[in-house]
Write a sequence for this structure.
């Protein structure tokens, strides 16, 4: 059977990996290629790269980084950040990405999902959602978690699936960077209404957070950044631990 | 020299990078003379069976590949593997290259409801028949799959399978012709070792 996946996420700005807390206080952390090598060796199942630079020069640095990583790391690579058009899809796929994650670009123009799924296949299109509780409801935020779109997260997830997204990354703004565990309540709310694979993001702080996460069949993968980058959690140790807990992981 | 067949289907970045990473000479080509000059051929592919087969036929590459498959090792990957069979039922009925006997059928018809299609992610590859392609590979190592159709009625050529409710055909061989349903170029170090063994056949 298919394994549960452990996915480190690398936020890249001006060619460097950075990390913030609750989308703020961004700190420089490492060279992306070195980090990708380290994750490949320690057993990451997939890598996600988010381009968090907005400038044109940053974009060029990002595709250089992507090409360098894809030339020597042979596991699936997902790329996101600033994907607004089919041309953006084309550019990152040509640099070695296997999947492309859309967020604000799809909120502005939902047909981006259907057009990309038609051209590249659903398996290539990942819908990334930044979600936060507002008055007891799950609300979709855009632009790196800064703008409340007013869109209901459950409706957006269902619509994304119907448009042809092959996977959903659900990032809880409420738990992001806090390391208090994944947002199981939010994940299950979405997991119960869509069939496509669901990747949990936001809140991983310790190994037990992952074993708790994978008690839920509907959740296919756990994504984290800071806890892996700082080596607070070593992926190899995490997988040994999960295996002992009876979770099907790739060793 | 390995010739990677370029017939406008799919992204060859990872495959070419992985061969270069292994220090193997390769050429991405759609020319018959390059296929003839190479000592090994890889047939990649992503997308729909019918479109891919039409492109191979239009360009005349289908005939050349069939001819060369008798004299040099050929490896089909993912859709490239499915093209090696007699026919496929992906959106209609399409003839394949007929290098390995068997039929490509929808996976959804054979697995229990609730299991996701495509079969996408890491799965264990279980060896059912030993072969030189496993020179650097251990039974049960993990490989990366993305597919919605699978090869059936090919019992005699199956080298390895992966369990996804049913036993999914993972790796096949008939004579010098090999096919991998999974992506060795996306299967980490285990996949690289399979490509290395292919380069030494």
């Amino acid at each position: 059977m298919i394994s549960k996946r452990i996915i480190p996420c690398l936020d890249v700005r001006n060619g460097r990996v950075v990390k913030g807390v609750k989308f703020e206080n961004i700190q420089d952390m490492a060279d992306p290629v070195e980090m990708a090598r380290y994750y490949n060796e320690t057993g990451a199942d997939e890598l996600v790269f988010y381009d968090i630079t907005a400038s044109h020069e940053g974009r060029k640095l990002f595709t250089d980084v992507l090409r360098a990583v894809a030339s020597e790391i042979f596991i699936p690579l997902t790329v996101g950040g600033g994907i607004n058009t089919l041309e953006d899809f084309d550019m990152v796929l040509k640099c070695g990405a296997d999947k492309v994650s859309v967020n604000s670009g799809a909120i502005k123009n939902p047909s981006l999902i259907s057009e990309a799924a038609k051209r590249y296949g659903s398996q290539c299109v990942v819908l990334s959602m930044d979600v936060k509780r507002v008055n007891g409801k799950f609300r979709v935020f855009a632009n790196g978690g800064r703008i409340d779109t007013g869109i209901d997260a459950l409706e957006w997830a269902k619509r994304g699936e119907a448009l042809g997204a092959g996977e959903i990354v659900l990032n809880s703004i409420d738990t992001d960077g806090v390391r208090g565990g994944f947002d199981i309540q939010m994940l299950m709310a979405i997991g119960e209404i869509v069939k496509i694979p669901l990747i949990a993001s936001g809140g991983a702080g310790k190994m037990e957070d992952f074993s708790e996460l994978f008690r839920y069949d509907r959740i296919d993968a756990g994504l984290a950044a800071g806890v892996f980058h700082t080596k607070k959690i070593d992926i190899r140790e995490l997988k040994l631990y999960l295996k002992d807990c009876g979770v099907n992981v790739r060793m | 020299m390995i010739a990677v067949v370029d017939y406008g289907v799919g992204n060859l970045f990872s495959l070419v990078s992985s061969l270069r990473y292994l220090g193997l000479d390769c050429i991405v080509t759609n020319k018959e003379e390059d296929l003839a000059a190479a000592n090994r051929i890889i047939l990649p592919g992503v997308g729909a069976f019918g479109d891919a087969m039409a492109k191979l036929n239009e360009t005349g590459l289908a005939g050349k590949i069939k001819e060369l498959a008798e004299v040099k090792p050929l490896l089909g990957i993912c859709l490239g593997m499915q093209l090696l069979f007699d026919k496929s039922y992906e959106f209609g009925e399409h003839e394949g290259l007929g290098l390995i006997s068997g039929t490509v059928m929808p996976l959804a018809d054979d697995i229990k409801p609730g299991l996701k299609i495509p079969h996408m992610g890491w799965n264990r590859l279980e060896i059912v028949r030993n072969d030189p392609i496993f020179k650097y590979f251990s039974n049960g190592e993990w490989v990366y799959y993305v597919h919605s159709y699978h090869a059936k009625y090919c019992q005699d050529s199956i080298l390895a399978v992966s369990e996804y409710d049913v036993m999914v055909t993972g790796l096949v061989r008939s004579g010098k012709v090999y096919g991998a349903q999974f992506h060795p170029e996306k299967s980490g170090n285990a996949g690289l070792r399979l490509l290395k063994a292919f380069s030494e056949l």
